[in-house]
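Key result, reporting period 2: structure in, sequence out.
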């Protein structure tokens, strides 16, 4: 019997949230990445207030934060503002700045140092170039679900909406100093990882556990955390983890995405409990829509899988329909106010749209980084006022 069968689903309050964000550490003069994670973590340890919430990542120019468990999106907003404000303070004390986006517009992975932890050394040893070039930044959202079978059923259902979440969060139109023609270059870079992308459909938690159990028993993976799908059950935490999103510049946008995800997990969990099944679609169709979202963002011409109509539609249209379906659930969760932020993203565009507006104004890629860093901190200041 695989250890993956051990789980904590149903042990916490349903639909509670947790958010992880990966930030870039920046030089305030050149706006290139700086390898300051060790000295930053020393400052955190000396203070102790946020020590459990701030961690290293694969590269020394990356810092990860994790919120505590939150009841709703309003709680997430408060926690992310506090964490981002704290990171801004220790970054300035360390002589650097920080920013949140899916890629750094011009830094090179060859110049980054790997963090001195066994897990990261082993990862690079296993994946070689694929791991060394992973200079990307993501946002993960966890939502608690009531049972192991519900975690798999809801994963199957929410997978169809991965393109919407990717388009809402897309903030990586640059790679190595060039525009890529994609709004989420991060997705293309991470797709080189094994066991990544849109997950396959499973019939039950036992089906999921059997597959992962074989990978574990044969030594292909150490444990299920080496499954890097866009969405995955997290048995140890008792959550379903959304992993498809780029790191988001504006804190309000991150919270709006978390609110939408929480509402959908609730909606499909209740449908599964009521009917014993939820809608799901062939992986190939979801992968196609996800590619279109990475390429074109909110205006991507995608397939409407729910209706099967012959003509493709703008992805923003599907997001508006999804909002209408999610709103009653967000209201019951107390997250409806934060969910309104999705409409703001649709009106103004995502982070990639903003970066390209700055770039198109004067073709200064350093200004792109300066702007996204300022926007990260402006969001904090606005929240604190």
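The corresponding designed sequence is given below.
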């Amino acid at each position: 019997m695989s250890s993956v069968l051990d789980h904590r689903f149903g042990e916490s309050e349903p639909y509670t949230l947790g958010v992880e964000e990966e930030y870039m550490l920046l030089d305030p003069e050149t706006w290139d990445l700086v390898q300051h994670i060790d000295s930053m973590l020393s400052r955190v340890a000396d203070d102790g207030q946020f020590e459990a919430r701030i961690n290293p990542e694969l590269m020394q120019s990356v810092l990860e934060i994790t919120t505590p468990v939150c009841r709703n999106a309003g709680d997430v907003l408060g926690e992310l503002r506090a964490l981002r404000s704290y990171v801004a303070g220790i970054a300035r004390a360390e002589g650097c700045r920080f920013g949140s986006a899916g890629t750094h517009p011009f830094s090179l992975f060859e110049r980054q140092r790997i963090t001195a932890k066994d897990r990261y050394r082993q990862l690079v040893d296993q994946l070689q170039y694929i791991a060394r070039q992973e200079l990307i930044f993501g946002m993960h959202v966890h939502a608690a679900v009531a049972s192991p079978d519900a975690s798999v059923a809801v994963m199957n259902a929410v997978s169809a909406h991965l393109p919407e979440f990717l388009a809402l969060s897309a903030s990586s139109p640059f790679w190595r100093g060039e525009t890529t023609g994609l709004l989420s270059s991060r997705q293309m870079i991470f797709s080189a990882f094994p066991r990544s992308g849109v997950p396959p459909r499973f019939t039950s938690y036992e089906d999921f556990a059997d597959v992962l159990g074989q990978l574990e028993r044969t030594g292909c993976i150490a444990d299920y955390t080496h499954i890097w799908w866009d969405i995955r059950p997290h048995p140890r935490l008792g959550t379903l983890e959304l992993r498809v999103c780029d790191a988001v510049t504006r804190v309000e946008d991150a919270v709006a995405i978390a609110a939408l995800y929480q509402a959908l997990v609730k909606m499909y969990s209740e449908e599964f409990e009521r009917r014993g099944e939820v809608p799901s679609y062939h992986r190939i169709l979801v992968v196609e829509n996800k590619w279109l979202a990475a390429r074109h963002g909110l205006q991507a011409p995608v397939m409407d899988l729910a209706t099967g109509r012959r003509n493709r539609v703008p992805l923003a249209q599907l997001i508006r329909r999804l909002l209408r379906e999610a709103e009653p659930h967000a209201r019951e969760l107390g997250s409806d106010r934060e969910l309104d932020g999705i409409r703001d993203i649709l009106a103004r565009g995502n982070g990639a749209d903003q970066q390209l507006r700055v770039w198109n104004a004067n073709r200064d890629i350093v200004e792109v980084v300066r702007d996204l860093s300022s926007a990260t901190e402006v969001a904090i200041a606005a929240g604190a006022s």
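The chain has one domain: 3-384. The chain is about 50% helix and 15% strand. This case is discussed further under Risks and Mitigation.
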